[in-house]
Amino acid sequence: MTVCKYDISAEFDLKAEKISGSVKVVVHNVFEKPLRELMICFKLPPYGKEERLSVELDEERLSLICAEELDPLFEKEFLIELPDELQPRNELKLVLKFCGRLHFRESRGIMYLGDYWYPRIVFGKEYVGDYVARLLVSRDFRLVSSGRELSISSTEKNMREYVIESYKTWKFGLVLGKGLDVYENEVRGVQIKSYFISETKKWANILLENACDAVDFYISEFGFYPHRSLSIVPGLKGPIGGYPVATNLVAIHDLDKLGEKAFEFSKWIVAHEIGHMYWGHYVLSSTFPDWLMIGIGIYMDRHYSEARGLSLDRYRRCGEKGPKILSSFIDRYLYGVRKGYDTTIAQPVEKLMRAGFDWNNIVVHGKGYSIISMLEQLLGKEVFRKIHDNALRKYAYREFRIEDFKKLCEEISGQDLEWFFYQWLYTNRVLSYKITEVERTRENNVYRIKVTVKRFGDAVMPIPVAVFFENGEEVIKWTNRRLRVNVLVFESKNPVEKIELDPDRVLPIIDPSELPEQTIIEQISLNFRRFSFSAVADFYEVAVEKNIKDTFTWFCLGLSLYDVKRYREAQEAFKRVLKLLNENPKEPLVVWSYIWIGHILDVVGEREKAIEMYRKAINTGNKAVFQFAQYDIGPVDAISWANERLKKPFKRIDRILL
């Protein structure tokens, strides 16, 4: 939806680092209610004592009211009150005169101005605009924009005038470069330009060919390309990857750094950045940072990678341990899980800014694509493709909110997906499953394989389990997400070659042994408070491997292992409590660990050793009062209970609380 039409005239004095000009903007009231006021965004700092911004309506100046700052010299958003309400379906024309200091970072003689160089009208939602711009720039520099160049002409003072138009544009941006040259081509009516400096010349034609191929593929695959032009400019030296500078304008960073991987990577990164022109600049972003636009954009470039035979490892779980740009997207997210980071997506922006880790790579790109990958697996490729294509059509030039996405997924799939979106957007739950047991039998020349899969994390998903047989046959069965323990049975006349969880590696599954210590402690505590003692007991081997230091965790493990009749491991868990606390008699967990070891020894028929444990408890003098309601014990103090056990052995009873 186009709300504003901009006619910009500006002059860039790059030696003085100054820009000045005017914007004639026509504002259409496309809303249902009258507009009484407007907000103007202008982010350039003042240039000396020159007036930074003024606004006129019908040749009358309007007052600028600071939205945040006290000093208008440093304000970024101004409120203007209209003399008369702008009624629905009516329009008005404002004249904005501006002057500011150019302070943008320069790299290799290139200035990336984005869309911050001119004043613009902003609303509570994002909208596209139409632009015509007449821009004067020194001949020493070349101007690259979001639009098509209608003309370039020489003027006085060694300047060039660029006349540019760009329609239905979300972010009308600029790049200025010294020594920039260009290769160009046109594909299906889309003007594509690849700009370069001497240092990047060898990549210019390659990037142009990549862009032409990607645009051609996207048009063939998805039916259209949403813009009339695309420009590629050199990015920064050092970083790897790229980014959308503005609509129709992308930067590709240092490719030489990648060595033999550079050519394949160049094809993918161009297709990836072009994907932003669909998801983000055509279907508009509604939140920051927007995992949804990034995730679906990656889904889109995966289609290109599949069609062109590029590596698909960047879309799979490959087991890499770092959040590097060359790591798979799923592995970037799992790196954050291993580190114990809070990857909850629905967090306030101010909290994200204090996260202390690479939120963009780990969560926006990593978890963002992981969610899309899981949804595609859950709903099926055909259904998810319908969702993707429907969203492209329905939300053209409109904000696409998470609520819209969820609703669309549910409408097209016919499923209630509240459970899925809640756990992946509003919690820090992790997906941890493991094959814990494989039982193989053979009868009447039929091989029977019973596979036990257990869930260790608090996120739930149906998980595919594949059995590969020696004759090449592959059979896949799915776990039930509602069950913590699934037992799947496979039968074949051929021997088994291997068994795999999630054979396509498209789910962000993490082995329980890779969970961070705090996550393991939290999972044990959560399950213990639910009386899910078998779930707690399943963490015993992981806790031993991780050498967990939390004493209450070991006490919970001891009780849970006792409950599932794993008596030897239960004793070891209670002994860990004693060791970690140095058998300090003042500690309540010490006296009750003695008692529970005594209980176990009584149950297994070692009465003399049990008595020894009860006496150790009594000798502490610690009368800590505990209750174990599930076994109808207590509340009772430790000394009284231990003395009672000297008289009468402990006998196991079934749980009375579930």
Task: Kindly list the characteristics that best describe this protein.
658 residues, alpha+beta, Immunoglobulin-like, Neutral Protease, domain 2, eight-stranded mixed beta sheet, five-stranded mixed beta sheet
Q: Provide the residue-averaged pLDDT.
A: 95
Approximate shape: elongated
Largest sheet: 8 strands, mixed
Compute the separation of the termini in Å: 57 Å
- Detail the poorly predicted runs: none
Count the domains. 4
CATH superfamily of the largest domain: tricorn interacting facor f3 domain
Specify the structural class.
alpha+beta
The total beta strand count reads 31
The DSSP helix count reads: 17
Overview of the structural elements:
The protein is an alpha+beta fold. It has four domains: 179 residues, tricorn interacting facor f3 domain (Immunoglobulin-like); 143 residues, Neutral Protease, domain 2 (Orthogonal Bundle), CATH 1.10.390; 80 residues, Immunoglobulin-like; 132 residues, Alpha Horseshoe (Serine Threonine Protein Phosphatase 5, Tetratricopeptide repeat). It has 17 helices and 31 strands. The strands form eight sheets. It has an eight-stranded mixed β-sheet with strand order 5-4-8-2-1-12-15-14, with no helix packed on it. Strands 17-18-19-21-20 form a five-stranded mixed β-sheet, with helices on one face. The protein has a four-stranded antiparallel β-sheet with strand order 6-7-3-11, with no helix packed on it. The longest helix is centred in the N-terminal third of the chain and has 22 residues.
